[in-house]
Structure formats: C-alpha cells, structure tokens
Amino acid sequence: MTMAGEHQSRRDIVHFGRMLHERGFIAACDGNLSVRLNKDRILVTPTGVSKGMMKPSDLVVVDTTGRRLKGRREVTSEIGMHLLIYRMRPDVGGIVHAHPRTATGFAAAGMALDQPLVCEVVIGLGSIPLAPYGTPGTPELAETLEPLVPQYDAILMANHGVVTYGVDLQSAYMKMETAEHFAQITLVTHMLGQQQLLASEDLEKLVAARSKYLGVNSAAPMPVPSCNGYGADGREIQVLRKGKAARTHAIPRQRGSAIQFES
Fold first, then answer.
1. Which of 15, 33, 41, 206 has the maximal Cβ count within 10 Å?
2. Contact at 8 Å (CB) between 9 and 82?
3. Residue 212's pLDDT is what?
C-alpha cells in the first residue's frame, strides 16, 4: 500500500471509530479496529484511547506477530484476535470489534443469533454464532474464535461483545450494524413470544441469491427451520467456504444429514 493509502486507512479507522461511539456500540475506551495494509503490516487502534476521540496519528502499525513498527502508543491488548482473523482469512481487509448493547446482551445471555428470521441477514451474514468465553487480551480469546473464523463473518463472544470482518473496514463496520440490528429484531420476537422462521425452500433461494449482491461473500452455515426447528427431514443447510463466493446450487446429502452448498 502506498503512503497515501495508509493515510486514507488512518482516516477510515478514525471515521468508523467515531461512528461506533456515536451509535453507542462502544463506551469509554472499548473496542478496536484494524486494516490490513499489506501482507506484512496491519494498522490498528491503540489501547486506552476512546475510539470516538482518536486522531490518525494515534494509530499503530504492527507486523504479523503484533510487534509495533510505527506509532507512539501501545497497540490494543486484543491484537491477537485481529492477527488470527487475518491469518485465517486472506480475503479480509478490515476488522471491527465492539460491544453493541443488544447483540452483546445476547452474548452475555449465552444465546447465538442463528435463527433465520430476516432475509437480509441470511443473505449478508448467514448466521451469527456464539464463541465460548475467552479472557480479553489473552491468547485464550483467539483460541475460542479459531473454529468459527473460516466460515463466519460475524461472531458473538460470550460475556464480551461482537467481532465482524470483511473485504475492507467499511464492510466490517456494516456487518457490525447488521448484527446489532438483527439482535434488536430477535429481541422483539422474544418479547412478542413467537418467531416466524423462514421456511426451508425460502432459505435455499436466499442463499442462492447471495452472489447477486455486491460485496456479499458470506458462506456461513444456516439452519433450515420448520415447526420443530429444522427441515422436514431434520436436515440443515450449510455453505462451505472454498472461495470468496458461494455457488448457487444445492447438493443434498443423505436423509438426516446436512444439505450443503459447495462454494
């Protein structure tokens, strides 16, 4: 990335950090954001600084081991989570970690956002799983995320918050907004006492339609519900990530196993 590109990435992190703060997705010095500058360098927020009050010069450049290369401040204590995602997902260019109220409430309640209630969420994210609790700022946190990172673009972290990632920082931020919006909708359905889940055939059509939407490359597994929570034969739909986008055909497996969309 050119020097001009790094300057723009600094401005982007400051911009989206301010948006997270203004929307109440973070408080005080919570949260962290990063951008992959190139294969060897990552631009990331510092620790102990409000993400709503940052300046471009506050940001830190680190290498792929987390060693500081540029910047006067200390790097976020959760840099290990960012490094893990960049290492496992070459398609990712930006990461956002925040604590939006409703989605974090689900994480604190030990509840994943994995029911197919809203078609836009199925297309954009598939589902949002819950990772077990890991102590922030320790390798334990990255270890809890590792099994989920290859297939999901948004993850709830038990008793902690949410992490989202995408091809660039804007994509990662938009996925954070989607996760919180979906959490709010899900909460309303719980308050109303019922959920009208998308049917299996509708879900298959939505997954197949993903390739028509610009910037959507999610390949997250998504359960197929019926009155008993799954398809009529107890199967699930899954999308396997083998490339950046999912292919649009279904390959049924044996009865009682999973339907999988190969990508």
1. 33
2. no
3. 75
User: What are the tens digits of pLDDT across the range 140-151?
Assistant: 999 999 999 999
**Is 146 part of the annotated catalytic residue set?**
no
Domains parsed from the chain with CATH numbers: 3-192 (3.40.225.10), 200-262 (no CATH)
Angle of helix 3-22 relative to helix 169-192, nearest 10 degrees, comes to: 20
Q: 181-218: per-residue pLDDT in tens?
A: 999 999 999 999 999 998 888 888 887 777 677 555 55
pLDDT in tens, 46-76: 999 999 999 999 999 999 999 999 999 999 9
